[in-house]
Amino acid sequence: MKKAYVPYSHFPVGAALRLSNGAVVTGANIENASYGLTNCAERTAIFRAQMLHDVQGDTNIIEIAVVADSDGAISPCGACRQVMAEFCDADVPVVLTDLKGDELHTTVGDLLPYAFDSHQMDDKDEPDATK
Ligand code: THU
Asked: Closest ligand 1 atom to the C-alpha of 31?
């Protein structure tokens, strides 16, 4: 949360990922004057983990924690749930918290049931220009 860049919302969020190699990779939200370009804490952490540890290779994300000064455990946005689903197995535990100590324990799969994933594009031929 201390590294968040939040001049617009003033709402810092922190995320931490535990990796199978023992590393912990953190992230924070990074906002933009063009609001829609904001990168949430969860995606910052996941993208850092991919760059630093190739978490789609031999190393995996095995646990996620997210914290903010929210009214109840922070809830990840839909975009971050989709990115979690891309980079984590569905059974990866997620701990959502606030600064008061509220905790919600869930999983990547429970946060985004019926996620769209690459398997739904399996067995596709080259694009058919007639369609
Ligand atoms: N935000 C996160 O970084 N993660 C969440 O789980 C919820 C929302 C950020 C995005 C934006 O910078 C600020 O919180 C307010 O929406």
From this structure: 12
Active site residue 42: yes
Tell the burial category of 74 from Cβ atoms under 10 Å away from its Cβ (0-12, 13-18, 19+): buried
SS3 116: coil
Question: How far, in Å, from the CA of 29 to the mean position of ligand 1?
Answer: 6
- Architecture (CATH level 2) of domain 13-121: 3-Layer(aba) Sandwich (3.40)
Instruction: Break the chain into its structural domains and give their ranges.
Output: 13-121
43 vs 64: CA distance, rounded Å: 11
Residue 109, token pair as written in the block = 């799969």
The reported pTM is 0.94
From 2-11, 70-79, 95-104, 116-125, the region with the lowest mean pLDDT: 116-125
Nearest CA to ligand 1 atom 2: 40
